């Protein structure tokens, strides 16, 4: 298994998702969504777009 998406309710009554690796490390967190369906749609958007995503580095310095 490549990890899992976890949906939770936030303090404002909305929903958020987290992508969690098998070792329990949180890899990404979605912003707040007004409904659970909107949250699920956000997860599906990540699933569709992430395999082709490039890294765009806008940081000012190299570390």
Describe this structure in words.
The N and C termini lie far apart (32 Å). The longest helix has 14 residues, at 36-49. The chain has a 3-stranded antiparallel β-sheet with strand order 1-2-3, with helices on one face. By secondary structure, the chain is α+β, with helices and mostly antiparallel strands. It has a single domain, classed as 2-Layer Sandwich (Double Stranded RNA Binding Domain), CATH 3.30.160.160. The protein is built from 1 helix and 3 strands, in the order E-E-E-H.
How do the strands and helices of this protein lay out in sequence?
Blueprint: E1 4-9, E2 15-20, E3 26-29, H1 36-49
Antiparallel strand pairs: 1-2, 2-3
Task: Provide a short characterization of the protein structure.
The protein has 63 residues and is an alpha+beta fold. It contains 1 helix and 3 strands.
Shape: globular
Number of strands: 3
Radius of gyration: 14 Å
Low-confidence region ranges = none
Q: Which percent range describes the beta-strand content?
A: 25-35%
Pfam family, one: DUF1508
Organism: Nonomuraea aridisoli
Protein name: DUF1508 domain-containing protein
Domain DUF1508: 10-57
Give a quick set of tags describing it.
63 residues; globular; alpha+beta; Double Stranded RNA Binding Domain
């Amino acid at each position: 298994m490549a990890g899992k998406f976890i949906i939770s309710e936030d303090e404002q009554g909305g929903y958020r998702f987290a992508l969690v690796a098998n070792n329990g490390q949180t890899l990404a967190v979605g912003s707040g969504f007004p409904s659970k369906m909107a949250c699920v749609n956000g997860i599906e958007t990540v699933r569709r777009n992430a395999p082709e995503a490039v890294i765009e580095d806008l940081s000012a310095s190299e570390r």
